[in-house]
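Q: Got a minute? One more chain.
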Amino acid sequence: MLGRRVLRPALALGLALALTSCSRGETARPTDERAPSSAAFERAPEPTTPAVEPPSEASPSSPTEERADPPSPPPDDGWVLALLEAHPKKFGRLLEDPARWRLQILVTEIIPPEGASRRERQRQRAAEGWTLTEHGYRVDVEYVYPASAIKTFASVAALKKLASLRAQGRPVDLDTPMALCAEASERCGRVHDSSNLDGGHITLGHEIRKMQLVSNNEAFNRLYDFVGHRELNELIWGLGLSGIRVHHRMYDDPDPEGWRRTPRIELRPRGAEAVVIPARRSDLELPPTPTPGLKIGVAYLDQDKQRVDEPLDFSQKNWVSLRVFHALALSLARPELPGAVELGIEEKHRAFLLQAMTEDPLASKNPVYTSPKKSGLRYHTMIQGIMRALPLERIRYVGKAGRAFGFHLDNAYIEDRKTGRAMVVSAAIYANSDGVLNDDRYGYDPVTRPFLKDLGEVLARAVLLAETP
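A: Always. Here it is, folded:
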């Protein structure tokens, strides 16, 4: 019988709050969706509204050099490994040398009260009677680049900042028009987004939808600028999730000084004065990334496409602990369960974010996507394997994947709508046969996509259908 470790409420919450870690910057060309800009700037009068006060320089929740090392992850319980070993044709090559593939998997089974009907489960939605069991395999034993999977943290941070502004009495919300100012300009430009069919403005809500639906990089960068470098890190640390370091935007200027600077932002509520967030320069020094394996590969291509024959150093690149990814997925989808953390966002905003993380882009009415390449099956790789076990209409899938530098991650809450059985799955793998970074020649098609699909299938059968391997 496969081993398991049941999470009691106090233990689960303790694990979520104990998460720690760090990272930095993104140079060159990680993958993830490139979305052409549809914005055009127009000149507008300079508002006279006082700027929003920047946060204080000190943050009691900030990780320090003394606290940089995370607690040792619990030992693998053997459940995931036994499941993978039961399917040697799917996973045998990876299990021969998991360190080569930087293979990491974390699964939490979520089982409803025995005998509860669907209506009772929906009405109950409380911690009583639910069983959570956690299984790990090589969790956080080496560095994994988070790629676009990190974008959901930007959504949460932006929603937390919005909640703070609303608590101050500012009449702003997800649909408030937003203007970004050119760094050298004394005046702000009104920014139009033709993809927003509701008024044609850039808004926080529309940027969140674009980013979560199709992994739009420009949307992430706008949220990064809205929240700020220091504030983005500190807002997430303040949740007790210290295992994250956000150093840079997507496809950003390679100069670290540019990562710290964010432009003036204006939220322009209709019929009210603009809310001004001033241009900022972050002085936050992020602690070192507390994981081994930060120098990756044998060579890389620099910004000029010139080969440099040494490993690429990821110590100044973004990083998220697999456990922090896991806690975020659980906290968004099932905040009532043990192990979830209070995110500090309004309930209607949480529902808005969940919708953007669940909806098939081709079903979106704003923005509208018509290319088959924008199908949700592209952005939720594991679901293609889950569909081998369950029909699509039975699957509730709330997630955000990422793919860059040869790393491929998925982080999702997955539920069988019929039975109520569910799981949180956080998985990462790396495939780069020639060891060269930034050459866009990675092993996504032969290795990482098949792995995530196969993982989705075997977990769906083991957890959602309760089949024995």
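A: The first helix runs from residue 9 to 17.
Q: Perfect, thanks.
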